[in-house]
Amino acid sequence: MKLEYILFGFGIIFCLAGVGYLAAQYVQYLTDWGQLLALLLTVGLFTCLGKFFEGVGW
Amino acid sequence: MPATKSKPKMSIRKRNIYLYLTVAFFLALIAIFVFDGYMGIYDTVTITTAEREDTIEPEFWLRGDSQDTYYYTWADEGQTINFHYELENRCLRNYVAEVEVAVWVSESRQNILVSDALVVRSFDSAEWDWSLATGTLRPVDTPETQDFELSVIIKRNDVELRTIVHVASLVPKY
Lengths: 58, 174
Description:
- The structure holds 2 protein chains of 2 kinds.
- By secondary structure, chain A is mainly α.
- Chain A has helices at 2-27, 32-56.
- The longest helix of chain A has 26 residues, at 2-27.
- Chain B starts with 11 loop residues before the first helix and ends in a 6-residue tail after the last strand.
């Protein structure tokens, strides 16, 4: 049971790392304004996600 | 046992609003990636030599620094190489393009093939065609049995698109 959770954890980390890597590769082709807007949207995204989990009780 | 003060729980409705906002921000982020990736100035070069047609897509020119990126092609001496250059303006405003195409051999400019300045309207494109007769470009200090190389440099404002052409001599070496 615990091993499964560890494997799930690894899977999630690898997924996030992969998506992060692809995003980082792509971001360099965006214009300065696009990068700024993407940064602001990312901050907003994680803020709202954090507030949601706070509401769930995490 | 003293009663502990617990934080007031967020209503499900308010909580869901945060979830919807998260999804909206995520979708907006993807939209920025798609929109910003589409917008811009794009160069497409097509080189036709004998039976071979190479199309160099805009992605090729966007790789790395424009000074280091070059396309390599080849032809036999005497063959004519046809070039087609398309400049696509995917911006919301007009683009003033000063285009100069020149042949360079050993860091010296031999001749200018195209010299033009025009306004490319928003979401429109401009095209140029020219030919390169390789039979007349041999450097004076290069023996006839030896192959040589030259560069065709398309200069668009501050961007350089460089194509190196290897011209093979048809005179037997031995």
